[in-house]
Design goal:
The protein is α/β, with parallel strands linked by helices and about 230 residues long. It contains 7 helices and 10 strands. The two termini are about 30 Å apart. It has one domain: Rossmann fold. It is globular and about 50 Å long. Helix content is about 30%, strand content about 25%.
């Protein structure tokens, strides 16, 4: 997933988004524009309701804007039909959420291999799932079920699933929100390793200072607009 030369991996221009109708209509994003280069680790911070999760979902093709351009690797997501959008999302973008979203009736390895069910190019599902679990230090728990795992282990399984198709872009929504301090630090360190050693681009929505400190750049969103941008210390 390489953008055209001299173009950022992610480019947003004038993105707006509202929900509801009539008097109940609420504008969540108000003309957001930003660039994120390949290989960056960016934290997106803001108060609850500021629009940060909506923005992440639009970048990942899980939601569509009302107006504006959303370019990922040079492709305008607003111009893709649902089939091509799903294909791009499954093959090129990894998602990590606070709530893990694991299926309790499946084993860890089955959860990790789920993306193979939606991608005809992923034929070596079990082997790749084992590789991803080993990468996050859970190779010996492949046949456990999520109900047998700690919160930190569940998040690692979710990370392994996000890595299954070896995406160049990881979108993370409060990935340490349900973790204790020690486990959260381990997850952040793993994200830094992915970024520094593999060149994976990460955009992490967070309200936690420990995540922001690990980022190379911090974007602050207020009332649906990027209010300021700063280099992390």
């Amino acid at each position: 997933m390489t953008p055209p030369a001299n173009e950022p991996l992610i480019r947003l221009a004038g993105v707006t988004k509202s929900y509801g109708h009539g008097k109940g209509r609420q504008q969540v994003l108000r003309g957001v524009s930003l660039d994120i280069a390949a290989g960056e680790l960016v934290a997106l911070i803001g108060q609850s309701g500021s629009g940060k999760s909506t923005l992440l979902n639009i970048i990942g093709g899980l939601d569509r804007p009302d107006a504006g351009e959303v370019l990922v690797a040079g492709r305008d997501l607003t111009r893709l039909d649902d089939g091509n959008l799903s294909r791009l999302r499954n093959e090129r973008i990894g998602f990590i959420f606070q709530a893990f979203h694991l299926l309790d009736h499946l084993t860890c390895i089955e959860n990790v291999a789920l993306p193979a069910a939606f991608s005809p190019t992923s034929r070596e599902g079990e082997a790749r799932a084992r590789e991803a679990l080993a990468r996050v230090g859970l190779g010996d728990l492949a046949y456990r079920r999520p109900t047998e795992l700690s919160g930190g282990q569940k998040q690692r399984v979710a990370i392994a699933r996000a890595l299954f198709n070896r995406p160049a872009l990881l979108l993370c929504d409060e990935p340490t929100g349900n973790l204790d301090t020690h486990t959260g630090r381990e997850v952040i360190a793993f994200f830094q390793e992915l970024n520094q050693k593999d060149g994976t681009t990460l955009l992490i929505v967070t309200h936690e200072e420990r995540v922001s400190e690990a980022a190379g750049r911090v974007l602050r969103i207020v009332d649906g607009q990027i209010e300021r941008e700063e280099k992390a210390a």
